[in-house]
């Protein structure tokens, strides 16, 4: 018995003339002779050549799409196209049969909608194998990037009592039996009797706790799940998704921008370096999808082109006020091509962000210094009394990919903004404490992991870049 | 203005004779002359020497424990002990004051209990700085280990409809207003009207979903938060904790053991390699803690000794049946030194596990093939009809650190075990599907991240190795 070798290793080495064993699942079986065997290590399948004369017909009948096999044989140079080597089988063992009449995955193209219904099996398709290998490579690149810079990975809490951040609707967490909730004399739920002794929710962001870490450890980042109980059934929303949120003591807005730009380029470069095969496959898929769209809606760039567009150019930096002036004077505004008219004070829409990136600058853009009214309480107030030291990074195709700011480090200013936004200083005493004791300029930003994966894989629906999407009325698996 | 340098970088280089700027927080200020400045990058503080004659007394008064400073000066060789270089300050800027009368962290030893109450500030102490840097280094080492082996990092769902695993009490997740729950005609909560259209909970394990990934991607691992709504107020329990759960197609029990042993050694080696300073500090703390204990309860090994004990030796492997026989014939059993008497079929207690590791074999131990009755439904049944292909890895001081098994890949056998344990095949149809379509031998295990950090840092209470612990009636920050 030869030790098992992974198909990626076998194909990458390109070496031939030796015996080995591989294990995997049958993707296709042609002419009772050619098995395409895949073990998940790469999007490429290994061609296994069966000697149909010498093989038991009963065994041959069991070699069907989806069956798990162990194959021992000799690696030989492949006469066929598309691969350097193939495996000439000498011994085939069926590890697990697969009934073709009931197996939902047939050797044909299935719709993404259908595959979402069988998310427990979609890992076995080319597209989703590629998507989840890219997802892995990006997660690892994120950890490597921050580790190399001396950041500390901080696990901020998932269950939180804080509902003060105003970042959207929250899920409630309880150990109560909903059939039998203890009540106070007034008839309200008596949360003193619940597990945590008070109302608890799922976090919408680890930022505030991340800041606590940064004010002792210097530079930290979170990478964890966050939640929104918003009833949005769109291709852009999930109830459960993963966020990366770095927070850095002693960083001002420009340091923050530099870090965000460096990180995004590092991640794109990592995907290109480690996922070449998978991105090529996804790039072809992207082109096919685009062809289905009306001409006007098609992407001007292919998938790899978009990645290089972001990798090769310095990001254009300008203020919100400059961006609005530019949009107001743009041909699009004059020809009334924007759905939402432009004026100072507005929250920029995706169409405006994409205009800046794709039409005007033709490079990624960082917009800074937004009006205070449309940004969160914790962003640092600028001296003009109108704007805050916010920054949004805008990418082609999707608009905002990162949102961040220098944080308001001045106790009095922060308190004042909390009052304006009706956020309780008593609830967030611990957040204010960092401004009372040894405060310092600091900054941070947030990156939605699934948005990043969508950008890099070209997958149009966010449900197709997370293994088991949670959306309204959907909690399967 | 010189670009800021991190204190770790400055101290590690040992170079002197140049001007630079550092930023950090004052740990202590002695004789109006010596500032110990820490920026979180290392447990070591930089000695900053102030020229007290040339410095404004008003400024000197603001240099107090906890204040945030920017210091520019010249790096010079240090005449003092404990550091190669120090910084002769030429310019000191107070970034943030700290009122010594209200600042909870004084330059003295605080109890861990007190520091838990101010978890938002404990990052600024030596002990917790070290613990959370070690936590980071271990998290990164886990990702690096699996990435090097070609595993795919899989984000399994946090919110789940599955409550079938029987791994403990679960938290409920709902978008209902608990004051106003929609009711069915029978008066029960109408979950069809809840966010997901059915009851939802927080996950207790990503294993089952991990297996789905492994059956397409080959080798996967999870690293995410898991939850237990158990009302346990102990030094060993958290309501929210992080788990690492690898699942591998084509691995049998021995492959599983090999992976677990290799991983644990890799992680210990990584901590020793990357966290030397922090582990030295934690080792001293551990020794001091042990000295407070009665002689009999003291650890026989120091912290670093325990790490090397696990790193340097092959783990002893034996079956549960062999382990029970060994314990039954042990001097401890004969002298009735075990609190729980030993017999085949029992769930081994920590005292038995530690006896095997610390007294008998004097090395880490892997016990395999436990009685089916005390293990979960998904573990592979052995041919003896009594035991399953389980494995527990036992470590000194703590007992079980890893639990795993070969998974039952045979559809009929799995179904039969689910029936015995009253687990609904309809609910877990997706889990059974992997056994219906191309099943194969596969294995996996689980490692509690906080248990690992406790082992490596020597921290006795699990609440001291996670930034913001969640326990009954405790959800601060």
UniProtKB/TrEMBL annotation, chains A, B:
GO molecular function terms noted in the UniProt entry: ligase activity
One Pfam family it belongs to:
tRNA_anti-codon
Q: How does it assemble?
A: Homodimer.
Does this UniProt record's set of keywords contain Acyltransferase?
Answer: no
What protein name is recorded for this chain? Asparagine--tRNA ligase
Keyword Methyltransferase included in the entry's annotation: no
| SUPFAM superfamilies from the UniProt entry | Class II aaRS and biotin synthetases (SSF55681), Nucleic acid-binding proteins (SSF50249)
Per the record, the coiled-coil ranges are none
Instruction: Spell out the PROSITE patterns in the cross-references.
Output: AA_TRNA_LIGASE_II
- Cellular localization per UniProt: Cytoplasm
Catalytic reactions of this protein? tRNA(Asn) + L-asparagine + ATP = L-asparaginyl-tRNA(Asn) + AMP + diphosphate + H(+)
Give the record's keywords alphabetically: Aminoacyl-tRNA synthetase, ATP-binding, Cytoplasm, Ligase, Nucleotide-binding, Protein biosynthesis
Species whose genome carries this gene:
Compostibacter hankyongensis
InterPro entries membership: Aa-tRNA-synt_II, aa-tRNA-synth_II, aa-tRNA-synth_II/BPL/LPL, Asn-tRNA-ligase, Asp/Asn-tRNA-synth_IIb, NA-bd_OB-fold, NA-bd_OB_tRNA
């Amino acid at each position: 018995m030869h030790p098992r070798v992974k198909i990626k290793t076998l194909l990458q080495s390109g070496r031939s003339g030796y015996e080995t064993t591989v294990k995997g699942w049958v993707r296709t079986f042609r002419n009772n002779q050619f098995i395409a065997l895949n073990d998940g290590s790469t999007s490429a399948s290994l061609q296994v050549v069966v000697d149909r004369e010498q093989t038991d017909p009963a065994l041959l009948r069991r070699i069907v799409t989806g069956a798990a096999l162990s194959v021992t044989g000799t690696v030989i140079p492949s006469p066929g196209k598309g691969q350097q080597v193939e495996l000439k089988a000498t011994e085939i063992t069926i590890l697990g049969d697969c009934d073709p009449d009931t197996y939902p995955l047939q050797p044909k193209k299935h719709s993404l909608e259908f595959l979402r219904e069988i998310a427990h099996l979609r890992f076995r398709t080319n597209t989703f194998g590629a998507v989840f290998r890219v997802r892995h490579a990006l997660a690892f690149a994120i950890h490597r990037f921050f580790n190399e810079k001396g950041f500390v990975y901080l696990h901020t809490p998932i269950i939180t009592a804080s509902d003060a951040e105003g970042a959207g609707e929250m899920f409630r967490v309880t150990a109560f039996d909903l059939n039998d909730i203890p009540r106070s004399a007034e008839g309200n739920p008596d949360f003193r009797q619940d597990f945590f002794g008070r109302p608890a929710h799922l976090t919408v962001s680890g930022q505030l706790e991340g800041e606590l870490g940064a004010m002792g450890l210097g530079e930290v980042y979170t990478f964890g799940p966050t939640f929104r109980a918003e009833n949005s059934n769109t291709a852009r929303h999930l109830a459960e998704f993963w966020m990366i949120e770095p927070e850095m003591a002693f960083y001002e807005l420009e340091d923050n921008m530099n870090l965000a730009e460096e990180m995004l380029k590092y991640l794109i470069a990592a995907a290109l370096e480690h996922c070449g095969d998978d991105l090529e496959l996804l790039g072809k898929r992207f082109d096919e999808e685009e062809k289905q769209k009306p001409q006007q809606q098609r992407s001007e760039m292919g998938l790899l082109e978009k990645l290089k567009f972001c990798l090769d150019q310095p990001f254009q930096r300008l203020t919100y006020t400059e961006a609005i002036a530019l949009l107001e004077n743009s041909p699009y505004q004059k020809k009334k091509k924007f759905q939402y008219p432009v004026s100072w004070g507005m929250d920029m829409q995706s169409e405006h962000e994409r205009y800046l990136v794709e039409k005007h600058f033709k490079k990624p853009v960082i917009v800074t210094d937004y009006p205070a009214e449309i940004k969160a309480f914790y962003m640092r107030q600028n001296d003009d009394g109108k704007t805050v030291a916010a920054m949004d990074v805008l990418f082609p195709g999707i608009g905002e990919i990162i949102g961040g700011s220098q944080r308001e480090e001045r106790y009095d200013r922060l308190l004042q903004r909390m009052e304006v936004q009706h956020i309780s200083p008593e609830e967030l005493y611990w957040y204010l404490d960092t401004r009372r004791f040894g405060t310092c300029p600091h900054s941070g930003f947030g990156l939605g992991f699934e948005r990043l994966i969508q950008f890099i894989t070209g997958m149009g629906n966010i449900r197709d870049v997370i293994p088991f999407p949670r959306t309204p009325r959907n909690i399967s698996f």
